[in-house]
Amino acid sequence: MDSVTQAVLGAGIQGALMGRFQGRRALIYGAALATVPDLDVLMSYPDPVSLMTYHRGFSHSVFVLTGLAALLTWLIRKYWPQAPYGGRRLFLTLWLVLVTHPVLDAFTVYGTQLFWPLARIPESWSAIFIIDPVYTVPLLAAMLYAIARGMTAAARRLLAAALVFSTAYLGFGLAGRVAAEHRVRDAMQAQGIAVTELRAVSMPFNTLVWRVIAKTADGHYYESVSSLFDRDPPEWLRQPLNLDVGRALAGVPLHERLRWFTDDWLRYDAIGDALVVTDLRMGLAGHYTFRFKMAERAAGGAWTPVTPSTWPTERGGWAEFKLVLARILHEQPPLPLAQWSEEALR
After folding, report:
1. Contact partners, residue 200, CB within 8 Å, separation at least 6
2. What torsion, rounded to 10 degrees, do the Cα atoms 245, 246, 248, 252 define?
3. Mean pLDDT of 151-175
4. For residue 346, what pLDDT band results from cuts at 50, 70 and 90?
5. For residue 125, with 0-12 CB atoms within 10 Å meaning exposed, 13-18 middle and 19 or more buried, which class applies?
6. Contact in structure between 257 and 53 (CB atoms under 8 Å)
7. What pLDDT band is residue 38 in, cutting at 50, 70 and 90?
8. Whole-angstrom distance, CA of residue 57 vs CA of residue 52
9. Ordered strands of the 195-202 beta sheet
10. What separation in angstroms does the CA of 100 have from each of 12, 52, 287?
11. Which burial class, exposed, middle or buried, applies to 21 when counting CB atoms under 10 A from its CB (0-12, 13-18, 19+)?
């Protein structure tokens, strides 16, 4: 999630649990501590694939953060033994502020190595967009109320209520994702389309309309759209994965790491003399967030792997966002998936 959301979540937790003892400082402490896992962005990496796949790594591990919470608890109790709260309450507060950061990240599609150093595919639950005002605004409003009125009992109750609402909203997002996946899978089965893998991803800033991507055994995938309010079958677009082109990267370490990080939701395109690898999980059809040039075509036509570089991509803007918003309530006209996809290959 975005840094503002992580900060207000941490502030809300610490304010609700420690505001009676720390006053408004609890909000500051919680907001600052909640940003600690994202300090890994200060680390330098030699290429964009490494930057993408090592972010949300060790600093987002529940094991590492549990140890950090225990260490901070010990230090605080050692140097401030007169503090009017017990060690258990302090540890619980610090642990929740730290661990809810990567857990919230795992509810997005990016991928969070929640159980590092275990070699698991990063957690990517796809229940919420990376920025969602319905999640963030109630927490922010409760925090501003607490700043203005002080950490009164009413303010602490409001913070707790905002935390309950935000948690319930994550559950709503998970339910929406499952419903979208079932709806698209059923519609495809009715059309005789055999799906091997399928997942729904929340569209920008909401959990009402979903982008659903589905793979088939013949080396293609479908871009589909489903809204909570749909009554007719969802629209979709069939696209090639171009796996034959991707074989040129077989065994290349960074390519294998990217496959692991994305759970192999990758598309390959030969654009001019560049082999471009696209992460299909993030973005919209033709407006993908992460694309990398990973090989070049030699004079004889063979592909030579190169140090990955970011491939220019049009991520869409207000014009596309207006269409997405309109799609929430109205299936007609459908989103111009074919037009958007053509733009990605220009």
Report:
1. 126, 176, 177, 178, 180, 181, 184, 210, 211, 212, 226
2. 170
3. 97
4. low
5. middle
6. yes
7. very high
8. 10
9. 195-202, 209-216, 220-227, 235-240
10. 11, 21, 30
11. middle
